[in-house]
Amino acid sequence: xxxxxxxxxxxxxxxxxxxxxxHISKVLRxxxxxxxxxxxxxxxxxxxxxxxxxxxxxxxxxxxxxxxxHEPSVKIILAQGLPKSDKMDxxxxxxxxxxxxxxxxxxxxxxVVRLDTAKGEKKQLRWQKIAAEAAKQxxxxxxxxxxxxxxxxxxxxxxxxxxTKIVAYEVEDKRSLKEVLQKPGNLTDILLLIGPEGGISKxxxxxxxxxxxxxxxxxxxxxxxxxAGLAAIAAILYETGNLGG
Length: 245
Prior knowledge:
This protein is α/β, with parallel strands linked by helices. It folds into 2 domains: 3-65, CATH 2.40.240.20; 75-239, 3-Layer(aba) Sandwich (Alpha/beta knot). The protein has helices at 19-27, 87-98, 117-137, 152-158, 177-181, 202-210, 225-239; strands at residues 3-5, 13-17, 35-39, 45-53, 57-65, 75-81, 102-107, 145-146, 150-151, 164-168, 189-194, 214-216. Strands 6, 7, 8, 9, 10, 11 and 12 form a 7-stranded parallel β-sheet that branches. A 5-stranded mixed β-sheet has the order 1-3-4-5-2. Helix 2 runs parallel beside helix 3 (117-137) and helix 2 (87-98) runs parallel beside helix 7 (225-239). The radius of gyration is 20 Å and the shape is elongated. The two termini are 23 Å apart.
């Protein structure tokens, strides 16, 4: 069933306007009496029935609230080194489907892509739209936030209070991701740092470790940047009971 995120607090009768109204009426060709799911600004999920519909506005009424929670028990913040081409589009889409809460594109020493402020803000708008579409498709209860590209120093400062901080490092051969995840203690939030195509520099690794990040191996094979983060996210979700049962 189609799910839409509304930018207003929940009411038993609500209006959907703008692009979503057009999509419902003209693309999905839904009719009066059809049902859809919504998530309101105050994160209430509900099954709603269409009462009236035009291409500009869809009026919906409450059928029932949905109590089931689709969000992982662990909050994952993905700090992704900026990759080249359109790889970030793919990373954002799949990371949102898996269940990350925040995605932070990071300009790193070995990033091929260099974005000035204007280009960075334009890219962020595109990625946020991709995140919203992925959240709808995967029945998320939130639309994860995609940040404007920033520096590693800023990310480490912004998330200094996160309980578990991990950096995937291809040269690490002693400590596995599984070992870190199975340490005693509750995993409530995780900052995961993934380098760009050229990897994480020695200076960046030292900076990350100085901020409390633990370097881990993702296995014996070298993963592409667009694979590494998704593999790590899936492993985190599995180890915390949020994937596969």
